[in-house]
From TrEMBL:
GO cellular component: cytoplasm
EC annotation from Swiss-Prot or TrEMBL: 3.1.2.22
Keywords: Hydrolase
The protein's name: palmitoyl-protein hydrolase
Single GO MF annotation: palmitoyl-(protein) hydrolase activity
Gene giving rise to this polypeptide: jg20376
Length: 228
């Protein structure tokens, strides 16, 4: 049974959707917050043929918040790339994410027509999803995100090739996830064969912005064109 909260869905405007984008929120947020935030920044983050899912992370104790309950995808020892990953926690969310993607497969959407992405912790989850659990996805994007220095993602990529294209976006004054953390994540993934692009947003802190969302939108439309 999936532990993910209610899926806040953005309906496509066409008669039938032929692709899906799964947008994971940051720590302590929720799917409906993510959806509202995206639509506050840009009214046109919609696609005639693509369904957008905004799932909510399970409520669980979160170590950086002193063990308080929070809607987080996985636990962290610390918000620092030098910290070891909480692998048991990642293993639990792996089952939930795979179940979510399978439900899209069962509805007729193959992995090659699914993109995963997210903000902050949600972007890190998307990277684990595309480069460990579901290596046949159409693409992955990460906004203000990073992976730990010795991430299991890197270890898995050393064992097999992965062709999922990557889009990373990061603000240059991010005071929670330093720009250098995102850049080193991108360089490490590139060194392991990942093809992608990295965009720096001027004067942007730990936040989404309209320019970045429009870059994501154009990129999604390139990777998931309408099919007839």
């Amino acid at each position: 049974m999936s532990r993910l909260g209610a899926l806040h869905l953005t309906k496509n405007t066409g008669a039938k959707h032929t692709a899906t984008v799964i947008f994971f929120h940051g720590s302590g947020a929720a799917g409906d917050h993510m959806k509202e935030w995206v639509h506050l920044l840009t009214k046109n983050f919609t696609f005639p043929h693509i369904k957008i899912l905004y799932p909510t992370a399970p409520l669980q104790p979160y170590t950086p918040a002193g063990g308080l309950m929070s809607n987080v995808w996985f636990d962290r020892i610390d918000i620092d790339p030098r910290a070891p990953e909480a692998l048991d926690s990642l293993k639990k969310i792996e089952m939930d994410v795979k179940s979510l993607i399978k439900s899209e497969n069962d509805a007729g959407i193959p992995n090659t027509r699914i993109i995963v992405g997210g903000f902050s912790m949600g972007g890190a989850l998307a990277l684990h999803t595309a480069y460990r659990w579901e290596p046949t996805l159409a693409g992955v994007f990460a906004f203000s995100s990073f992976l730990n220095d010795n991430s299991i993602v890197y270890q898995d990529l050393q064992k097999s090739t992965n062709n999922v294209p990557l889009l990373q976006i990061h603000g240059d004054i991010d005071d929670l996830v330093d720009l250098s953390w995102g850049q080193s994540t991108f360089k490490e993934l590139q060194a392991l064969g990942v093809q992608g692009e990295f965009h720096i947003m001027d004067r942007l802190g730990h936040s989404l912005n309209k320019k970045g969302l429009n870059i994501i939108k154009d990129w999604v439309e390139r990777l998931l064109p309408e099919v007839h």
